[in-house]
């Protein structure tokens, strides 16, 4: 049995509370915790024990999703490419990334924060509208900045950092995030696995550090290739490396009947 408190629920707010919120049948809530969930329209559903999940929806197939671990990296606007590497400079593709058209560039920069610096941070191309820096929470401690967990492009209210290149430096006023883990999927893959753009997937990693990722947003597009993107902290917590597989075991808070037991 666990006692679920308002404080514990508040701590979950930053990463998002699943709706419905699954608890064991003998878990207890404090009155403040009940009000907290009611006030946010979050339903509570109980399961009896870990081996008697009640299946809520069907998945036509069990889908395995390859893992892509993202180390810290930088996306640059063309203006910042030129500030760091010189007027008219173009990024040099080093190797393609899993998503079509994206590449890791030969070029790297140094990140400089109030507490320290990290050298050799890879730039991903092509250049985009505005510069964005994606680091892990652990990197944040090294640099002395503590960015929020955000989806790519959601930069309002984020901290900045200084980028140092061979021909100059750029002090970004904002644009540093810890990337929220997400799945990319093609239309065809989404159809065969019963998933729609924006669904929150439940992914299970089976191994020495078996872990459930209960709330992973999926982005569906014909230009995407199937991939589960996590950062280095998440990869280490789950003992995952690029190319490993995780399993789709449910979506939107409900476990699939074929795979929801363990
Ligand atoms: Zn991604």
TrEMBL record:
Its cofactor is Zn(2+). Its EC number is 2.3.1.222. It is an enzyme of class 2 (transferase). It catalyses: propanoyl-CoA + phosphate = propanoyl phosphate + CoA. Keywords: Acyltransferase, Metal-binding, Transferase, Zinc. It holds the Pfam family PTAC. Signal peptide: none annotated. It comes from the Bacteria. Belongs to the PduL family. PANTHER family: PHOSPHATE PROPANOYLTRANSFERASE. This is Phosphate propanoyltransferase. It comes from Brevibacillus choshinensis.
């Amino acid at each position: 049995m666990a006692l679920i408190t308002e404080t514990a629920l508040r701590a979950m707010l930053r990463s998002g509370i699943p709706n419905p919120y699954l608890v064991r049948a003998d878990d207890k809530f404090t009155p403040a915790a009940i009000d907290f969930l009611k006030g946010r329209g979050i339903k509570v559903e109980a399961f009896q024990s870990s081996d008697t999940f009640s299946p809520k929806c069907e998945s036509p197939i069990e889908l395995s999703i390859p893992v892509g671990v993202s180390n810290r990296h930088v996306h640059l606007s063309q203006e910042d490419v030129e500030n760091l590497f010189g007027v008219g400079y173009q990024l040099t593709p080093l190797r393609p990334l899993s998503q079509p058209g994206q590449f890791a560039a030969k070029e790297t920069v140094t990140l400089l924060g109030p507490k320290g610096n990290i050298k050799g941070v890879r730039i991903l191309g092509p250049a985009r509208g505005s510069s964005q820096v994606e680091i892990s929470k652990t990197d944040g401690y090294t640099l002395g900045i503590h960015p929020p967990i955000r989806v790519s492009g959601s930069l309002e209210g984020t901290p900045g950092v200084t980028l140092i290149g061979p021909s100059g430096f750029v002090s970004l006023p904002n644009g540093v995030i810890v990337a929220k883990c997400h799945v990319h999927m093609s239309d065809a893959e989404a159809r065969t696995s019963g998933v729609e753009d924006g669904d929150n997937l439940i992914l299970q990693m089976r191994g020495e550090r078996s872990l459930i990722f209960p709330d992973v947003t999926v982005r569906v597009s014909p230009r995407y290739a199937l991939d589960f993107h996590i950062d280095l902290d998440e990869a280490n917590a789950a003992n995952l490396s690029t190319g490993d597989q995780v399993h789709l075991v449910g979506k939107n808070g409900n476990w699939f009947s074929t795979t929801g037991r363990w």
